[in-house]
């Protein structure tokens, strides 16, 4: 099992946890746990002092131990559907062309 | 069997001596069994981001998927709301979604049949579509009393708070187009009073802050909530505040884990919170402990009220304008400001020709339309900045609360003056420029006949103390369903359209112009109601909505009074409501007076239940309590019942809006099995089938549904409609198909479409903002890039008030947003809830309209006058100021006024809905104890999502009641033995828990009196793994007058040792109690 010093040394060389883990033959999440004492999946309850330990990431580390996360935020299908809805609305087109509408930013 | 050699090698000591782990602290100590254990997450193919489907804290979840199956669900540590934590329910979500308790097949019960039979999903959908068409045709109303209504009373729908926003949106859209107005959800019975209270006080009906900001509070008062157990993950922020030195106070009839963690626990008599809060108001006013600069600048304290106004002090518990014949405040003009008329959204406006419509409009729930604006201000209110004018709000407040003294608190609430003083001191010493205090509440406040005024009392107090719009301040409404806030915002509610636009009323709103004239304000952001409304109708009817046809305004069915879920029960009993959809709600357990709920369903032609399991509302016809007593015979019940299994949150895309107004997207991880489908699928394909069956119809009644935009893209093998497309419609677009970024862009000419104006921006730039998941550690505490909060992603509402009138933070310690002179903009830690470039010294020119009419010092931008309202001159049905009344059924007489109960509360006399004698009335002593109810950590609402869960059922297996040792001795109750609780409506049995947690309340009356209270959770019903009687067998249908929420947090009962009788003997017991108490149809009904 690699030691904390070994992991931290590789980090000092500029490697990330993925590369450090590969180099030491352990998964990236395990490398993080060795270096920091904190589980990479975020399941711990670190104190502010814990978060100041060497090697602790300022960002989320779930990716080091979890499979890929799925969280899409855009959809081409929906974009195309919106355009079709808008373009198929003749009254909407005419109203926009007339430019007489009133609202919060155009009263 | 291991060989001796293998056995030797598995000996840990040998491994320790021969291996590298010589100290035996690692691998050497690991057994083979341990070595073979693997986390369920090991080998998962992906993590799908999700949100917990239980309460409204909105904890982030990671859903682990392997080989197309959900294998584990854990908390998402990146979530700013939960930081990876899940409560017992959230931790049991895997069982909820994949456990054996779920049904996956459609079931059908023919009229009169003794049991279920299988049915193909496709056939069921076709039959339901036919039933809807038929019921609609048979019950269609074009007019009522000469007014056009274009509706059906033959169909009703209940449920939505456990569903996604997108599902609620399509339910409301389709049913409204079909002319169905009886559309309701759990928000009615849980938090409708929150909307009316916070809406009229501040301009919006949602929590003013978010749980994560509680960490900045210097004092937190939790009242009407057991936060540590009902919202445990959000409670971490209270603990953060406490760790930073905050004072935590818990005020509640029932000692709980919240109390155990509080610095001060204050037990009080259930149903007396207004007396308690009113006395704190009195303390603040008499001690001049208010934040005067804030009060003068940001509240209506200086506004002068009409000389015609008479207070409860003058009329012994009544405000001016009460009509004893109708039991309503028929004339509320006297409540108005002097020299200016404040007009609520409909119903209380000064139009003589509409006087005859007032009672029905008042009862039509328009108070709920203050969920995001809704007042009109005519003229310029007179003000006295010295606060000396005898009719200014400040002086009225002082007179109104003068009798709410510490001694009165002891007499009414049973709280000793010294304890009360500690609460006052903690609050006032932790409010001001440098310090802020917050209030946290839940349904312990909302579910009363004075529920709105409970919350209003806290609003008054927080405005006086300067705690609204500031970090660590505010009023945190803790909602109890994953999207109950969303099902209010995008409402499956009878009285509002999306974004709290009121549903039109038959008399007030014959045309769009009259609707706008009647309901829109001239000043503030409610002045743009026409843009919000026209954009909504463009979203619903697309190209069919034109300026020539009032944008299809006539397609909207009209209200004629109250059509709440409780009114629907009586419509069912009367045979007028023939078809009923239940979607994720279980009224046979969760609504008041469950007997009437079941009897109503027994009078239906058809019932559609969509749920995970066979809840009580699906099976009452074969195993309900009335079958056992013989009141109903299965063979005689002609209700046709369809049970359709529902998809879980891991099986569908969509958003929940949590308790802090934050929308969070959960992704579909897997397709649902068998016949299980999302409610989005159900309502979309039901609408599609109905439209196909009606295609070619020239009947005018069918035009709204045929012209409805109903073309959502579908995907997958089950043709699941795109929830993201629905969200995009909710967000809105312009004529080029560009998603809108803000409601500021909406127009009133049809050039924009938007399904819910307050959600405009959730799909800004074509990005699903609700799916944003920037980890908490990478942003500040507001979590602005995690999900999206309405309005405009503002996390603390009214945050302009966090700065002084000049735009500087009241103190550096409490800085949130401020005016940046260099940039010429408001800036800070949160998105400013204010026009970003409006200078603090801006003064509106005379005659200014809309947002231009708001001064640079007006933080409450949805209010017509830009101010927080200590006194509400219009919009509430029971008065401008919170006033203590006893609950409907109370063993105690009102010590403050001659008026015993809230005068305009709604009563429903019925032989199965009898009320108790109260106070000094003869027979009151037959029901001498006070029952209060609450939620447990391990169960969820009416049990449909927890009583079939083996882990949760094991943790809390049985209904129980908590009684004090004194009450146990008085009534011969034994710990863990059975007790029977009795009201005029029902009798139930529960295990007895004798505990000091329910302390007897000592009232300093003459002579002194002890009131015993009984605590009881309400989750149980006869079905499921953990079964028991339903608490709501005991409760009555009696409603708060503004929003029609029921009173189930304080009611008088009797308790006796032993189990309850079964069969006909149960009714005999109730008859005996009613006889002894002298109960008649008139008992408790008079105002």
Textual characterization of the structure:
- The complex is a heterodimer of chains A (107) and B (1087).
- In chain A, 48% of the residues lie in helices and 2% in strands.
- With 107 residues, chain A is mostly helical.
- Helices cover 26% and strands 16% of the residues of chain B.
- Chain B contains 34 helices and 41 strands.
- In chain B, strands 4, 5, 6, 7, 8, 20, 21 and 22 form an eight-stranded mixed β-sheet that branches.
- In chain B, a hairpin with a 2-residue loop joins β2 and β3.
- In chain B, α7 runs parallel beside α29, α13 runs parallel beside α20 and α24 packs across α26.
- Chain B is globular, with a radius of gyration of 28 Å.
- About 1% of the residues of chain B have low confidence.
- At the A-B interface, β1, α5 and α6 of A face β1, α23, α31, β27 and β28 of B.
- β1 of chain A pairs parallel with β1 of chain B.
Ordered list of secondary-structure elements with their pairings:
The complex is a heterodimer of chains A (107) and B (1087).
Chain A: H1 4-12, H2 17-24, H3 28-36, H4 62-65, E1 69-70, H5 76-87, H6 90-98
Chain B: H1 4-9, H2 12-18, H3 32-35, E1 46-51, E2 60-66, E3 69-75, H4 88-91, H5 93-98, E4 107-109, E5 117-118, H6 121-139, E6 140-144, E7 147-158, H7 165-177, E8 180-184, H8 186-190, H9 192-202, E9 219-223, H10 227-230, H11 235-243, E10 247-251, H12 257-260, E11 264-266, H13 273-286, H14 292-298, E12 322-323, E13 328-329, E14 341-344, H15 358-362, E15 375-378, H16 393-401, H17 406-412, H18 417-429, E16 437-441, H19 443-446, H20 451-464, E17 475-477, H21 486-489, E18 496-497, E19 501-502, H22 512-519, H23 529-541, H24 565-573, E20 579-583, H25 587-590, H26 594-602, E21 606-611, H27 616-623, H28 625-629, E22 640-645, E23 654-657, E24 662-666, H29 679-694, H30 703-706, E25 714-715, E26 720-721, H31 723-731, E27 733-734, E28 752-753, E29 788-789, E30 817-820, E31 825-828, E32 906-907, E33 929-934, H32 950-955, E34 960-963, H33 965-971, E35 978-982, E36 987-994, E37 1001-1003, E38 1009-1011, E39 1013-1017, E40 1038-1039, E41 1051-1057, H34 1064-1077
Parallel strand pairs in B: 7-8, 7-20, 9-10, 9-16, 10-11, 16-17, 20-21, 21-22, 33-39, 34-36
Antiparallel strand pairs in B: 1-2, 2-3, 4-5, 4-22, 6-7, 12-13, 14-15, 18-19, 23-24, 24-29, 25-26, 27-28, 30-31, 32-40, 33-41, 35-36, 35-41, 37-38
Helix pairs in contact in B: 6-29, 7-29, 7-31, 9-20, 13-18, 13-20, 24-26
């Amino acid at each position: 099992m690699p030691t904390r010093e070994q992991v931290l040394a590789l980090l000092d060389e500029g490697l990330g946890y993925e590369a450090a883990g590969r180099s030491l033959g352990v998964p990236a999440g395990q490398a993080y746990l060795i270096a920091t004492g904190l589980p990479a999946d975020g399941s711990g309850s670190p104190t502010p002092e814990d978060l100041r330990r060497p090697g602790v990431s300022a960002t989320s580390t779930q990716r080091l131990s979890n499979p890929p996360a799925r969280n899409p935020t855009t959809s081409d299908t929906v974009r195309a559907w919106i355009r079709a809805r808008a373009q198929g609305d003749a009254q909407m087109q005419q109203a926009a062309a007339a430019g007489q509408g009133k609202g919060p930013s155009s009263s | 069997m291991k060989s001796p050699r293998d056995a030797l090698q598995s000996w840990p000591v040998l491994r320790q001596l021969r291996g590298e782990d010589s100290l035996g602290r690692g691998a050497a100590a690991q057994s083979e069994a341990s070595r073979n254990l693997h986390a369920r997450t090991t080998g998962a193919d992906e993590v799908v981001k999700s949100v917990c489907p239980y309460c409204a804290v909105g904890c982030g979840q990671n859903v682990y998927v392997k080989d197309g199956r959900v294998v584990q669900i854990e908390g998402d540590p990146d979530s700013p709301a939960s930081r990876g934590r899940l409560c017992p329910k959230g931790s049991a979500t895997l069982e909820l979604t994949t456990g054996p308790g779920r049904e996956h097949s459609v079931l059908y019960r023919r009229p009169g049949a003794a049991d279920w039979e299988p049915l193909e999903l496709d056939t069921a959908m076709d039959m339901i579509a036919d039933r809807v068409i038929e019921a609609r045709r048979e019950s269609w109303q074009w007019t009522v009393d000469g007014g056009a209504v274009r509706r059906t009373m033959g169909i009703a729908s209940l449920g939505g708070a456990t569903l996604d926003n997108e599902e609620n949106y399509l339910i409301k859209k389709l049913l409204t187009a079909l002319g169905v107005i009886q559309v309701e959800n759990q928000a009615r019975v849980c938090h409708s009073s929150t909307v009316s209270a916070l809406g009229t006080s501040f301009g919006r009906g949602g929590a003013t802050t978010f749980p994560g900001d509680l960490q900045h509070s210097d004092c937190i008062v939790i009242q009407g909530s057991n936060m540590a157990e009902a919202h445990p993950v959000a409670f971490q922020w209270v603990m953060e505040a406490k760790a930073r030195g905050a004072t935590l106070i818990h005020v509640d009839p029932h000692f709980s884990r919240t109390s155990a963690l509080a610095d001060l626990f204050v037990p009080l008599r259930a149903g007396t919170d207004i007396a308690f809060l009113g006395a704190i108001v009195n303390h603040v006013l008499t001690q001049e402990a208010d934040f005067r600069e804030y009060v003068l600048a940001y509240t209506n304290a200086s506004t002068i009220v009409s000389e015609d106004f008479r207070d409860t002090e003058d009329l012994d518990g009544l405000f001016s304008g009460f009509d004893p014949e109708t039991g309503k405040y028929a004339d509320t003009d006297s409540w108005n400001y002097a020299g200016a008329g404040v007009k609520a959204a409909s119903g209380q406006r000064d139009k003589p020709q509409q006087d005859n419509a007032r009672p029905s409009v008042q009862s039509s729930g328009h108070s709920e339309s203050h969920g995001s604006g809704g007042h009109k201000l005519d003229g310029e209110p007179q003000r006295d900045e010295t606060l000396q004018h005898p009719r200014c709000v400040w002086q009225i407040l002082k007179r109104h609360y003068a009798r709410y003294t510490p001694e009165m608190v002891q007499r009414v609430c049973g709280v000793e003056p010294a304890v009360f003083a500690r609460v006052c001191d903690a609050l006032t010493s932790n409010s001001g420029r440098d310090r802020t205090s917050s209030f946290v509440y839940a349904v312990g406040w909302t579910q009363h006949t004075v529920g709105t005024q409970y919350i209003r009392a806290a609003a008054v107090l927080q405005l006086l103390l300067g705690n609204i719009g500031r970090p660590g301040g505010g009023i945190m409404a803790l909602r109890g369903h994953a999207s109950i806030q969303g099902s209010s915002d995008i409402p499956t509610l009878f009285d509002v359209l999306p974004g709290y636009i009121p549903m039109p009323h038959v008399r007030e709103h014959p045309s769009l112009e009259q609707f706008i004239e009647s309901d829109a304000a001239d000043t503030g952001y409610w002045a743009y109601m026409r843009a919000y409304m026209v954009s909504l109708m463009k979203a619903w009817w697309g190209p069919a909505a034109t300026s020539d046809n009032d944008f299809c305004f006539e397609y909207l069915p009209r209200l004629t009074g109250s059509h709440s879920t409780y009114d629907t029960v009586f419509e069912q009993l009367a045979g007028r409501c023939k078809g009923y959809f239940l979607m994720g709600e279980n009224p046979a357990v969760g609504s008041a007076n469950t007997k009437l709920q079941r009897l109503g369903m027994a009078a239906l032609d058809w019932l559609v239940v969509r749920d995970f399991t066979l809840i009580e509302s699906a099976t009452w016809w074969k195993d309900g309590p009335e079958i056992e007593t013989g009141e109903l015979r299965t063979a005689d019940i002609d209700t046709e019942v369809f049970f359709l299994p529902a998809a879980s949150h891991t099986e569908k895309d969509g958003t929940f809006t949590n308790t802090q107004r934050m929308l969070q997207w959960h992704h579909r991880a897997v397709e649902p099995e068998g016949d299980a489908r999302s409610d989005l699928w159900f309502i979309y394909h039901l609408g599609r089938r109905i439209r196909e069956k009606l295609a070619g119809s020239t009947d005018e009644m069918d035009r709204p549904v045929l012209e409805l935009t109903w073309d959502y893209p579908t995907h997958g093998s089950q043709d699941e409609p795109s929830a993201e497309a629905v969200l995009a419609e909710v967000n809105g677009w312009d004529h080029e198909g560009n998603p809108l970024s803000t409601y500021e862009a909406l127009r009133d000419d049809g050039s924009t479409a938007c399904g819910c104006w307050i959600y405009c921006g959730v799909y800004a730039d074509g990005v699903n903002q609700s799916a944003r998941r920037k980890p908490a550690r990478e942003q500040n505490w507001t979590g602005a890039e995690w999900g999206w909060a309405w309005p405009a992603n503002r996390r603390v509402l009214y945050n302009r008030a966090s700065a002084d009138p000049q735009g500087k933070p009241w103190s550096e310690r409490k800085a949130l947003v401020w005016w940046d002179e260099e940039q010429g903009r408001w800036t800070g830690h949160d998105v400013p809830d204010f026009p970003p470039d409006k200078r603090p010294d801006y003064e509106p020119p005379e005659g200014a309209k809309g947002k231009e009419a708001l001064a640079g010092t007006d933080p409450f931008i949805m209010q017509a006058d830009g101010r927080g309202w200590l006194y509400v001159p219009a919009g509430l049905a029971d008065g401008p100021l919170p006033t203590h009344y006893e609950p409907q059924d109370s063993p105690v007489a009102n010590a403050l006024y001659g008026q015993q109960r809230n005068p305009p509360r709604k009563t429903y006399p019925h032989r199965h809905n009898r009320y108790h004698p109260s106070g000094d009335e003869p027979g009151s002593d037959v029901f001498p104890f006070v029952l209060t109810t609450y939620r447990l950590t391990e169960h969820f609402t009416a049990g449909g999502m927890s009583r079939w869960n083996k882990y949760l059922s094991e943790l809390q297996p049985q209904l129980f009641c908590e009684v004090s040792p004194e009450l146990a001795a008085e009534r011969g109750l034994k710990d863990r033995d059975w007790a029977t609780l009795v009201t005029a409506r029902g009798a139930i049995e529960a295990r007895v828990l004798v505990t000091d947690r329910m302390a007897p309340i000592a009232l300093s009356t003459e002579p002194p009196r002890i009131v015993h209270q009984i605590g009881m959770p309400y989750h149980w019903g006869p079905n499921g793994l953990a079964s028991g009687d339903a608490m709501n067998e005991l409760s009555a249908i009696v409603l708060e007058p503004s929003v029609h929420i029921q009173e189930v947090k304080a009611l008088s009962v009797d308790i006796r040792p032993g189990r309850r009788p079964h069969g006909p003997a149960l009714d005999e017991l109730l008859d005996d109690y009613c006889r002894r108490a002298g109960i008649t149809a008139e008992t408790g009904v008079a105002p």
